[in-house]
Specification:
The protein is of the alpha+beta class. It is built from three helices and five strands; from the N terminus they run ββαββαβα. The protein has one domain: Histidine-containing Protein, Chain: A, CATH 3.30.1340. Strands 1-2-5-3-4 form a five-stranded antiparallel beta sheet, covered by helices on one side. A hairpin with a 2-residue loop joins strand 3 and strand 4. The protein is globular. One of its GO terms (biological process) is phosphoenolpyruvate-dependent sugar phosphotransferase system. It is found in: Cytoplasm.
Length: about 110
């Protein structure tokens, strides 16, 4: 009888993971024009509804997800993979909400 493999589960895009300092979520930009002005504005507006801190990371750069200007500086195009990090009392709820926003292409 052989031992079952003890590999760590793989995590992919759209999985919310607990971290020592809050929660993390990887998402992919699905809309054709990327995070241009309208989706960046929508993302920052939706993030501002939560009391937790929310940061967005792309290509090693982390910005405040509540700031439209910060989001625009990332120049995240179609297909870009981003990581959201939330820390605070409503962090999990915030990431669930923002995940749906990415899935619905900011509509």
């Amino acid at each position: 009888m052989t031992e079952p493999s003890m590999q760590a589960p793989t995590t992919g895009v759209d999985d919310i993971l607990a971290a020592n300092d809050g929660y993390r979520l990887r998402v992919r930009v699905l809309n054709e024009q990327g995070l241009h002005a309208r989706p960046a504005a929508r993302l920052s507006q939706e993030a501002q509804k939560f009391g937790c801190s929310i940061h967005l990371r792309h290509d090693g750069e982390a910005v405040d997800a509540k700031s439209i200007l910060d989001i625009l500086t990332m120049a995240a195009g179609h297909g870009s993979e981003l990581e959201l990090h939330a820390d605070g009392p409503d962090a999990l709820e915030a990431l669930r909400h923002l995940r749906a926003l990415f899935h619905n292409r900011f509509r």
